[in-house]
Amino acid sequence: MTLDQLQVLQTIVRTGSFRAASQELHRAQSAVSYAIRSLEDEVGFSIFNRAKYRPEITPQGRAFLKKTEDLIFQYSELQETAELLKRGHEPLIRIAVSTLWPLPKLTAMLKEFYKVFPHTEIKIVNDVLSLDEQIIEDRADIGIGSIFNDKGLLRAQELFTIPMPAVCSAKHPLAKLKNKATDEDFAKYHQIILSSTLQSANRSGGIVNPHHVISVQDYLTKKAFIEAGLGWGLMPEHLVKEEIKQKTLVTLSQKPYVAHMHLARHSAKESGPCGNFIWNYFSRGQKTAGK
């Protein structure tokens, strides 16, 4: 059984006759008939009923045809994938995404990406405070979020900033002070912080009192702990805006800390078309407000 035989079969069914199929395939009608006879000999049943003027596909032939359509579609996809790989398209792109990064911005990019590169796999690496190490240690091709470029090995550009107000539960003792809380006030209570994803990075940001901390690795957990009154912490404004509005969370400083969102990749590594698409997509939107 060959792919050519299956393609001949599909052409006969689509055009309605052996003659029309031979014209479309630019082959002698006898060659088309031979291809089908050989296929029937191999599968052991008649695919076409030739008793009438026009060949009719048999019930067995119709069931067989349905499976050939799946196979030829997969083959077409395989050919397309091979062509894309030949042209330098990456089969996999790994994006390290900071927990701070607004997800609507990522989903919007992916929708556009898959219109152009439907066969490239995207792997999302969730990260806290170690995007640079993810890229340097070849765990990611591109990083989006808070970037430390201590070793100077990354090509990075700032895209936008995210306000990070200090907040606590409305039932927490600090809530009485509201935006008049001082560092001495903060130091008396547990601070909910994010610690680095990678132990090698060993980072955690903005600690007021190292003896009163609770470390987590995502903002969903951090927010839940703060809402439960376990402590206070800095939170991305877009994740607590509604709670502040509803007064279940209270802001504790007049001027929030600002987190800088970056786009980064290794300066010594060249990107292919897929990586460049992602880079250019976010670069075009640089300096826009985080949402």
Give a brief rundown of this model.
Helices cover 41% and strands 21% of the residues.
Q: What report would you give on this structure?
A:
The two termini are 56 Å apart. This protein is α/β, with parallel strands linked by helices and 291 residues long. The longest helix is centred in the first third of the chain and has 28 residues, at 59-86. Helix content is 41%, strand content 21%. The chain is built from 10 helices and 12 strands. The strands form 4 sheets. Strands 4-3-5-12-6 form a 5-stranded mixed β-sheet.
Spatial order of the strands forming the largest sheet: 4-3-5-12-6
Largest sheet: 5 strands, mixed
Instruction: Report the β-strand fraction as a percent range.
Output: 15-25%
Radius of gyration: 30 Å
Number of helices: 10
Topology:
Elements lengths: L2 H13 L2 H8 L3 H15 L4 E2 L6 E2 L1 H28 L5 E7 L4 H14 L4 E7 L3 H6 L5 E4 L8 E11 L1 E4 L13 H5 L3 E4 L18 E4 L2 H9 L5 E2 L2 H9 L3 E3 L5 E10 L6 H12 L7
Parallel strand pairs: 3-4, 3-5, 8-9
Antiparallel strand pairs: 1-2, 5-12, 6-12, 7-10, 7-11
Task: Based on the model shown, name its key terms.
291 residues; alpha/beta; three-stranded antiparallel β-sheet; 10 helices; 12 strands; 41% helix
